[in-house]
Design goal:
The protein is mostly helical. It is built from 9 helices and no strands. It has a domain at 95-257.
């Protein structure tokens, strides 16, 4: 084992996973036209998503899978087989249900911790994207390390590249939508926005995982290997498309939220050139 070479490879994996996430964060931040948040705040949110949310999610998901596996053994009824983490049904339940609820909840927690720094509705999706992109970066790095250990540096970099144009964007987008709901409830009196947009984030996450798992789903339902391979490629393409459209929608939401005329919370930041005219009549 060459420790120097391994350290260099790990550094390369970190850079490969980190750069796309920071590029996306720069893009999202630049889409907010008024009172852009300082980099210190956004990087703090990014770090929360990368370290706290990612590690806590991994621990919680492991505990829930262990509890579910024990429960399915204690109640050996077929209808509870999805709780067994060692079964195919259990694996799908983890990916499509447990992971979306747990991960989106922890990422949302990161956004709410910075509630006092929300000054406009547009801040919410920017904060959410910061947390989500941090989560996506570190999760992608960990997957890249796993691929590196089994297939070498090329395998690690390839996996990071694929996840950087799919999963990283999804994590940023889903939590950005939660952030929009949260900030609109706090600043624009959008009753129930927090809960509704949390469920939207979970639905986005789960839908993306369905697309990314099409190959495994095809195999589980008994399709031939060739068709399963085709389903995997189709699922990957659809997952990437889903993630790209989602982040594009987030940017449009930030743009729309930043217009003072459409967002009362930002009215105090509008420039004189776009200030609304006073109604005609006696003064």
């Amino acid at each position: 084992m060459n420790l120097t070479a391994d350290a260099e490879d790990l550094l390369l994996l970190v850079i490969a996973a980190l750069l796309p996430a920071l590029v996306y964060l720069t893009w999202v931040r630049s889409s907010e036209r008024y009172q852009r948040e300082p980099w210190g705040t956004l990087l703090g949110l990014f770090a929360w998503g990368a370290i706290v949310a990612t590690i806590t999610a991994a621990v919680l998901e492991l505990i829930l899978v262990d509890v579910g596996t024990a429960a399915s053994a204690a109640i050996p009824a077929p209808e509870f087989s999805f709780l067994n983490g060692n079964s195919t049904a259990g694996a799908f339940f983890l990916v499509l249900v447990i992971a979306p609820f747990v991960e989106e909840g922890l990422k949302a927690w990161g956004v709410t911790r910075y509630a006092s720094r929300l000054s406009t509705v547009a801040d919410g999706p920017v904060f959410g994207a910061s947390v989500g992109l941090g989560f996506g970066f570190f999760e992608t790095f960990l997957y890249g390390v796993a691929a590196f250990l089994t297939g070498g540096i090329a395998a690690g970099l390839a996996l990071i590249l694929i996840r950087s144009i799919s999963s990283v964007l999804l994590h940023g987008s889903s939590t950005a939508m939660f952030g929009y709901g949260y900030s609109s409830q706090r600043l624009a009196r959008n009753a129930g926005g927090t809960g509704r947009y949390y469920l939207l984030a979970v639905a986005m996450h789960s839908s993306f995982n369905v697309l990314a798992s099409l190959g495994a789903i095809a195999t589980a339902v008994g399709l031939p290997n060739a068709l399963g391979g085709d389903a995997s490629l189709l699922g990957l393409g659809l997952a990437i498309l889903f993630a790209v459209l989602a982040i594009d929608h987030v940017v449009k939401v930030i743009h729309a939220s930043a217009y003072p005329a459409a967002n009362p919370a930002t009215a105090r930041y509008q420039s004189p050139s776009i200030a609304p005219r006073r109604p005609a009549g006696p003064r």
